[in-house]
Amino acid sequence: FLWLTTIDAKGFPQPRPVWFTWDGEAFLVYSQPATRKLQHIENNPNVALNFDGGPKGLDVQVILATAEILKDPIPVNHIGAYLRKYGDEIRNIGGTEAEFFREFSVAIRIQPKRLRGMTISV
């Protein structure tokens, strides 16, 4: 997963872990409808993404990006890369893949604009 940080109505960052795929140009994240992150994106599409920084936290990469809620998305169960990456986790949390895909029906396309990073050698 990676961390998606949106900005709430009061201007405070709101980070949350999300599952994603990368198509070579943009990240694709699926969400449940009516979540705060969707409200935040509608009000301010500027977001940040970051990974965990490696085992010792020494490889920090922050991606500044713009998020768009897709109006007519491809259903997540038709995204082979997503199924290959998260299929086991979907089954481990219970329910069926079909139930999961009905619940996470909103697609967010996140277009990177700038990379900020730092790798520390020890």
Describe this entry's structure for a reader.
The chain has helices at 36-43, 80-92, 97-103; strands at residues 2-7, 13-18, 21-22, 27-31, 46-50, 59-69, 106-119. It is α+β, with helices and mostly antiparallel strands and 122 residues long. The protein has a seven-stranded antiparallel beta sheet. Strand 3 and strand 4 (27-31) form a beta hairpin. The radius of gyration is 15 Å and the shape is globular. The two termini are 26 Å apart. The model has no long low-confidence stretch (mean pLDDT 89).
Itemize the secondary structure elements and their pairings.
Layout: E1 2-7, E2 13-18, E3 21-22, E4 27-31, H1 36-43, E5 46-50, E6 59-69, H2 80-92, H3 97-103, E7 106-119
Antiparallel strand pairs: 1-2, 1-5, 3-4, 4-7, 5-6, 6-7
Based on the model shown, name its key terms.
122 residues; alpha+beta; 7-stranded antiparallel sheet; 3 helices; 7 strands; 23% helix
